[in-house]
Predict the structure.
Amino acid sequence: MTTLKLTQIGNSVGVILPKEILARLKLEKGDTVFVTDAPGGVTITPYDPAVAEQLTLGHEFMREYRDTFHQLAK
């Protein structure tokens, strides 16, 4: 577990992520992160949850119409 302190950044308050966490999330300065509600707190991730949902729906669609896609690929 990593404990981070909130710090004043201009007129805002922020958290500075250590290099180890940035490396684990494959983040660099200027990257965008997404904060979503989670049971017991929030989740910070570099992956857009809306895109993940769209991919899931796309996979379900392709699975449902697998035979059609197979015929179109011929």
Remarks:
- The chain has a mean pLDDT of 89.
